[in-house]
Design goal:
heterodimer; A: 256 residues; mainly alpha; flat; B: 246 residues; alpha/beta; six-stranded mixed beta sheet; four-stranded antiparallel beta sheet; binds adenosine-5'-triphosphate; binds magnesium ion
Chain lengths: 256, 246
């Protein structure tokens, strides 16, 4: 029995078992892959949005002549933001998943595991992104803001047009990283019965007592997903760096 | 000289215990070109930053056309739109091209139409000789070019007063001239300017009034012909002799 001569109805070697299991449970693996992507993508996108909001809140400064109500409100928001970031950064995602899923069930709300999975992923991402966003904002030279303020731009507009676009560019590699981490971290969501890839491997492996082979199958799938996304992100990053040179506006040349 | 544009009354500023500005009184009239000179650390930048409200004074008041500029964000924004500032470090928006730099604030603060903002940007970029570079990003320009764009950007707001904080200090020597020439041209247009500078020849030739600052005080305030040739204050004399000696 050579390497290229599989007897797929009677698998013997690990490779044969992998192919056999993949063929037999193709739908389960595909569904698991889809769900993994679904949770990772949605969790990451909403997590980014949350992270941006929290990061901006943490960076907020009370402006000139703000009234006490606004100042108090900002302070409360900042405390909430900081507490949230700390709690989610200092506890494991697998524990967060259990607490959120069972906690909400105890409140009498019946939440679909997938929904809980997205919620956990986005809350986790938000906490990490908030720090990244805050760091990204902090890394932009104060002169950039002062240049805008000095011409009458409000702090809000300055944030939107000057600071965030520059911070965003610096944050992109970290955002790509977070997405890849999330893609892998969805595997912990099997503990709240989300039918993602890890759950698929667990089920398939259990059916034949072929855990090594079935986990190898999903390892390959995780690897391919991450590899491909990594390449896509690298490509996008290069594109975003933009052109190195610029076109002289020759129509204005003679007016020097 | 025309009407008073900015008047500063009893302005003081401390950083912690460090008193940087002490009871500054100053009137700025339409068309004046005021150069502020003085040794490093005497508070020139801080004064300019207080005038633009980038720094909050510890005490004292600033009036614009007779009306006090209070510490209310909206009022400060409106005031800053009329009082432009050119920085030593240019502070061009790095995420934007030269043209976008010159159009952003006219669009977002003055709410000009795209066409108006574009025409203004081109007109002022031509004035400083930077119109061919509208598509360049700041990091593709030399220091002198950046500063000329920064000046054009400030001019696009049609400011009533333009503040300069050592606009040539960060430049290589061979680029100082191009920026000073642009400023000399501006001086002939009647624009009111306050210029912090270490370029004594420029201050002497271009200013209508020169202020010598010393340890947070306005130590001397006189026409350049007087201040440079016949300084009254011994500290001015000492400063100038140090400068002119090299
Ligand atoms: N943000 C700040 N915090 C604390 N001290 C400051 C701050 N900004 C300025 N100072 C201090 O205030 C004093 C005056 O500074 P300022 O920058 O106004 O001087 P300057 O006259 O512009 O000097 P230079 O010619 O070197 O630019 C200095 O001693 C400086 O250390
Ligand atoms: Mg200074």
């Amino acid at each position: 029995m050579g390497l290229f001569n599989f007897d797929l109805n009677n698998p013997q070697t690990s490779i044969e078992w992998m192919i056999y299991l993949t063929g037999k449970y193709l739908k389960m693996f595909l569904d698991g892959t889809w769900l993994t992507l679904y949770i990772a993508v949605l969790g990451t996108i909403f997590g980014f949005i949350l992270g941006y909001i929290v990061g901006i809140v943490q960076d907020m400064k009370t402006g000139l002549g703000d009234n006490p109500v606004k100042k108090t409100l900002v302070r409360i928001l900042k405390v909430i933001a900081t507490a949230y970031v700390e709690v989610f950064r200092d506890t494991p995602m697998i524990v967060q998943a259990m607490i959120i899923y069972y906690g909400i069930r105890q409140l009498g709300v019946n939440m679909a595991p997938v929904f809980a999975g997205i919620l956990v992923t986005l809350l986790n991402t938000g906490a990490y992104m908030a720090e990244t966003v805050r760091g990204g904002i902090g890394s932009i030279d104060l002169g950039q803001r002062e240049g805008a303020w000095a011409m009458g731009m409000s702090p809000m507009k300055t944030m939107i047009y000057i600071v965030l676009p520059q911070a965003f560019k610096n944050i992109i590699p970290e955002m790509a990283n977070t997405f890849l981490t999330n893609l892998k971290m969805t595997s912990v969501l099997n503990v709240i019965a989300v039918q993602e890839l890890f759950m698929a491997a667990k089920t398939v492996g259990g059916n034949y007592y072929k855990y090594f082979e079935s986990y190898l199958v999903i390892a390959v799938i995780y690897f391919v997903l991450c590899f491909v996304f990594n390449k896509i992100f690298n490509f996008m990053e290069k594109k975003l760096k933009g052109k190195k040179d610029y076109a002289l506006a020759v129509e204005y040349m003679d007016n020097q | 000289m025309g009407a008073t544009v900015i008047s500063i009354k009893d302005l003081s500023k401390s950083f912690g215990k460090h008193e940087v500005l002490r009871k500054i009184d100053m009137e700025v009239k339409e068309g004046e070109i005021i150069c502020i000179v003085g040794s490093s650390g005497s508070g020139k930048s801080t004064l300019l930053r207080c005038i633009n409200k980038l720094e909050k004074q510890t005490s004292g008041n600033i009036f614009f056309r007779g009306k006090e500029v209070r510490d209310v964000q909206r009022e400060v924004n409106e005031y800053r739109a009329k009082v432009g500032m050119v920085f030593q470090s240019f502070n061009l928006f790095n995420n934007m091209t030269v043209l976008q730099n010159c159009m952003l604030c006219t669009r977002k603060v003055l709410h000009l139409s795209k066409e108006e903002a574009f025409d203004r940007a081109i007109a002022h970029l031509k004035e400083v000789g930077m119109a061919p570079f509208i598509n360049a990003k700041p990091d593709q320009l030399s220091g002198g070019q950046k500063q000329r764009v920064a000046i054009a950007r400030a001019l696009c707001m049609n400011p009533e007063v333009l503040l300069f904080d050592e606009p040539t200090s960060a430049l290589d020597p061979e680029m100082v001239g191009e920026v000073l020439n642009v400023m000399k041209d501006l001086a002939t247009t009647g624009l009111t300017m306050i210029i912090v500078t270490h370029e004594m020849a420029f201050a002497r030739d271009v200013s209508t009034r020169t202020i010598f600052m010393d340890r947070g005080y306005v130590a001397e305030d006189a026409p350049p012909s007087e201040l440079f040739s016949n300084p009254k204050n011994p500290r001015t004399r000492e400063f100038l002799s140090r400068y002119l000696a090299g």
